[in-house]
Amino acid sequence: MTVSGKRIYLYGVEQSGAPLILVNTYDGDDGKSLYERIRERATKPFTLAVISGVDWNRELSPWEHPRIYKRDEDFTGGANTYIMEIAEEILPAIRKQLSGEPEYIAIAGYSLAGLFAIYSLYKTALFTRAVSASGSLWFPEFGNFLRQQTFAGDVDRVYFSLGERESHVKNPIVATVEDETRRAFEHVRGQGVDTILEMNPGNHFTDDELRLAKGIAWVL
C-alpha cells in the first residue's frame, strides 16, 4: 500500500497480537529478503512493515548539517516531521491491516535509518524497542543529544551493531562512528535497558541486510 507517498510492504499480518517491526529503507527495497532472513532467526511470530522511499538525508536526519561527502545532499533535519507522519498517518494505516493490536512496536534501520531509530526513542513513546544496525551515530552532536535527553516512553530493548572496519575511513566525522556507538551503547545500558553492541566483520557496506536481520531477531 502507499501512504504519504511511501510504499509500505507488510509481512506476517496474520499473526494476531504479534510484535510489529517498522523498518525504514531506500526506494525500491520491498523487504522480502529481509523478512525471510528474520524468520530464519526469530523465535516468535512477528509482523514486519517495510517503509520504502524515505527521503534519506531529509527525513532521517535529526537536525540540519552540511553534507559530509561532496556527492551527497545536505542533511535538512526533517526527522521530527517524519516521526509525526509515522504516528499520525503511516502507523494508523498499518494497524488497519493487522489482525490484532501488536504486543509492542519496534523500529529498526541501517545506517542513517539506524540513527533515526535511536533518535525516535527520545521523541515518541510509540516504540519500546529499537535496532540500530551500523547506525550513523557519528552524526555531529548526536552523542551530546543522547546524554542530555531521556526516553519519551518505556524502552526495554535496544540493539546496536557495527562493522569492525567502519571507523577506518578518511572522513574525520565518520571515523568517530565506533567511539560514538560505544558511548551510546554504554549510555543506554546505564539507563537499565537490555542492550547489546555486536561487532561484525567488514566495513559499512558488508552484509547490511544480515546485520539488520540479526538485530531484529535479537530485539524480538
Brief overview, please?
With 220 residues, the chain is of the alpha/beta class. 34% of the residues lie in helices and 22% in strands.
Description:
The chain has 220 residues and is α/β, with parallel strands linked by helices. Helix content is 34%, strand content 22%. The chain contains 7 helices and 10 strands. The chain has an 8-stranded mixed sheet, with helices on both faces. Strands 5-6 form a two-stranded antiparallel ribbon. Helix 1 (32-41) crosses helix 7. It is globular and about 50 Å long. The model has no long low-confidence stretch (mean pLDDT 95).
Question: What's the SSE blueprint?
Answer:
Elements: E1 2-3, E2 6-11, E3 20-25, H1 32-41, E4 47-52, H2 56-59, E5 64-65, E6 75-76, H3 79-95, E7 105-110, H4 112-121, E8 129-133, H5 142-148, E9 157-163, H6 177-190, E10 194-200, H7 208-219
Parallel strand pairs: 3-4, 3-7, 7-8, 8-9, 9-10
Antiparallel strand pairs: 1-2, 2-4, 5-6
Helix pairs in contact: 1-7
Number of H/I helices: 7
- N/C terminus separation: 25 Å
Query: What is the string of helix and strand elements?
Result: EEEHEHEEHEHEHEHEH
What is the CATH top level name?
Alpha Beta
* Rg measurement, Å: 16 Å
Most strands sheet: 8 strands, mixed
CATH fold descriptor: Rossmann fold
Shape: globular
Work out the number of β strands.
10
Q: What spatial order of strands do you see in the largest sheet? A: 1-2-4-3-7-8-9-10
Q: Averaged pLDDT, please?
A: 95
Oligomeric state, counting identical vs distinct chains: single chain
Within CATH, the superfamily carries the name Alpha/Beta hydrolase fold, catalytic domain
Counting helices, strands and paired strands, the structural category is alpha/beta
- Low-confidence region ranges: none
